[in-house]
Automatic annotation (TrEMBL):
It comes from Mesorhizobium australicum. Signal peptide: none annotated. The chain crosses the membrane at residues 7-28, 40-58, 70-90, 96-117. This is Cytochrome C and Quinol oxidase polypeptide I. Keywords: Membrane, Transmembrane, Transmembrane helix. The keyword Membrane applies. InterPro entries: Cyt_c_oxase-like_su1_sf (IPR036927). It comes from the Bacteria.
Length: 124
């Protein structure tokens, strides 16, 4: 694994490590209030980004496109805004970070859809 595929996969492993530590902290403190932030860090940060990494590894032609880097940037932005954003939203402080993170996640997935279809068309 190398390039964008590795960036996605390595980031995903970092996020799930943080997500697990956060889960252990929630369990130990018997305070599950922030469980949605933990769930999103693990599902958007780990599961989704690891899948992207596997795709770019299996389809190296897709990883060559500059759009793959845009896709990585958007996914990273999504996790970085969504995790603290959900915490702040649950605490009743502000929803703006969660909103930015959500739209970055959506844009990231639409970029991925475009990459998948364009690569498919180029290889067909
Ligand atoms: C060391 C590993 C982990 C620990 C200690 C842990 C702990 C927890 C705890 C205490 C809760 C709250 C449960 C409740 O209040 O009902 C929770 C919820 C959740 N966890 Fe984990 N977790 C771990 C790993 C993961 C992983 C790897 C994933 C996903 C790939 C994940 C996904 C979720 C989801 C989706 C929820 C529900 C969130 C919600 O209710 O909004 N967890 N976890």
């Amino acid at each position: 694994m190398r390039g964008v595929a590795l960036w996605f996969f390595a980031s995903a492993v970092v996020y799930v490590t943080l997500g697990m530590l956060f889960g252990i902290w929630m369990s130990a403190s018997h305070d599950h209030t922030l469980a949605p932030a933990h769930g999103h860090l693990n599902l958007v940060g780990w599961a989704t980004m690891a899948l992207f990494g596997v795709y770019y590894h299996v389809v190296p032609a897709a990883a060559q496109s500059p759009l793959a880097k845009v896709h990585f940037a958007l996914s990273t932005l999504a996790v970085w805004f969504m995790f603290p954003g959900i915490i702040l939203a649950i605490q009743g402080q502000t929803e703006i970070l969660a909103i930015i993170g959500s739209f970055a996640a959506l844009l990231s997935m639409l970029t991925f859809l475009f990459v998948v279809l364009r690569t498919r068309a180029a290889l067909a």
